[in-house]
Amino acid sequence: MRVEKPEHMLGKMLAESVYRTWKKDFTDKDTGEVTTVERKEWILGKGHIITKEDVAKIQFHQQAGELEDVLVTNQDRPFSLIKCGGKYEVVIKGSKVNKRLLINAMGINMALAIAIDWCEQMAGDNFYVKQIKVADSMSVLSYEQAENDNIERHYHSVTIQYWVVEEIEDATFLVLSKDADEAIDLVRAYIEQKDNLKELFGDYTITTAKQSLITDIVPMEMSQRYASYAKTHEWMMDGMRVGMDASNL
């Protein structure tokens, strides 16, 4: 149901999430070329019951020309709580940026917000999000590089096979290394140090070891800050309503 006057929305439920849109110009520092990009910001989430404060917010953004139609409904359509936390891959492109980020998040909305935040701090240039998807199941191994170690390293994925009862299972590890051989050595050393993994994997077999498409891993601390922020911002929770606690990442 479309309602022309925001004051008539009071007490109704949003049938769709509300976003404001605006245009912003970016100037290339080297060429002076100006690029206009349309930006989008979440305002209110689908299923939210509109309050007086929401009405004022909608009126403000409508008068600014940043949003038009707002769909509301009189019917509450309850939905099941789906916790979809995990790892996400986000591909970032730009004139000087080409990144595939691995991000811990509670859902695609949060992963996208983290990716944009990270790139605005780290990329130093115009960029856009080309792709976002749930990452394949993997364990990320931390690697502390020595201060005088100037060897170029990339992320490599190493997959092993092991037996569980009468079935073969796979496990994939992501590790920063100079080549596939070093990645295998690091994974073997990691498993050797963990008694529970030694018992679980037994006489495992290395099936693949190759350079990963992932270029950067966003620090867990950044994801944890967003997880705390998401407790009062339902759009990040992908299916959770305001007031529901975020599960630990």
Quick summary:
The protein has five helices and twelve strands.
Description of the structure:
- The structure is a single chain.
- The chain contains 5 helices and 12 strands.
- The chain folds into 3 domains: 6-73, no CATH class; 86-135 and 219-237, no CATH class; 139-211.
- The radius of gyration is 23 Å and the shape is flat.
- The strands form 4 sheets. Strands 7-5-6-12 form a 4-stranded mixed beta sheet.
- 23% of the residues lie in helices and 33% in strands.
- It has 249 residues and is α+β, with helices and mostly antiparallel strands.
- The model is unreliable at 77-84 and 238-249 (pLDDT under 50).
How are the SSEs placed, and which strands pair?
Blueprint: E1 13-14, E2 18-27, E3 34-44, H1 52-63, E4 72-73, E5 86-93, E6 98-105, H2 108-122, E7 128-134, E8 139-141, E9 154-164, E10 167-177, H3 180-193, H4 195-201, E11 205-211, E12 216-217, H5 220-229
Parallel strand pairs: 6-12, 8-10
Antiparallel strand pairs: 1-4, 2-3, 5-6, 5-7, 9-10, 9-11
